[in-house]
Amino acid sequence: MSDRQHRPGRVEDYTTPFLVSVFVLIFIALFALWAWAGFVWVLFSGWVATRGLTRAEDRVAIRTDSDH
After folding, report:
1. What pLDDT does 16 receive?
2. Within 13 Å, how many C-alpha atoms sit on residue 7's CB side?
3. Is 68 a residue whose pLDDT tops 60?
4. What Rg value do the Cα atoms of the chain yield, rounded?
5. How far apart are the first and last CA of the chain?
6. What pLDDT score was predicted for residue 13?
7. Within the chain, where are the H helices?
8. pLDDT(59) > 90
9. Residue among 46, 48, 50, 16 nearest 31 (CA)
10. Which residues of 30-41 are buried (b: 16+ CB within 10 A; e: fewer)?
11. Which of 44, 23, 18, 47 is closest to 33 using CA atoms?
């Protein structure tokens, strides 16, 4: 049998464990920042991250819309 004829089966979906891990890491990072610099810096960092992700999402949406 040739290697081209052999196809592997489905792989496991690791999306949920990845998202949980990312959430835990972000929580730990924000908690450490809070302990080190204070609550205002945590709020500011969260606001900056939200703005950055929203802008990145908008850029992807604009590129996707213009491609079609």
Report:
1. 95
2. 3
3. no
4. 20
5. 42
6. 92
7. 15-37, 39-67
8. no
9. 46
10. beebeeeeeeee
11. 44
Average pLDDT over residues 34-51: 92
Of the pLDDT bands very low, low, confident and very high (cuts 50, 70, 90), residue 45 is very high
Token digits of residue 60: 């992807």
Q: Read off the tokens for 10.
A: 């489905």
Q: Which of 50, 56, 2, 3 is nearest to 26 (CA)?
A: 50
- CA 50, distance to chain mean position in Å, is 12
Classify 8 in phi/psi space as left (phi over 0), alpha (psi -120 to 50) or beta: beta
Q: Measured between alpha carbons, how far is residue 34 from residues 24, 44, 48, 63 in Å?
A: 15, 11, 15, 37
C-alpha–C-alpha distance, residues 57 and 60, integer Å: 5
**What pLDDT shows up at residue 4?**
63
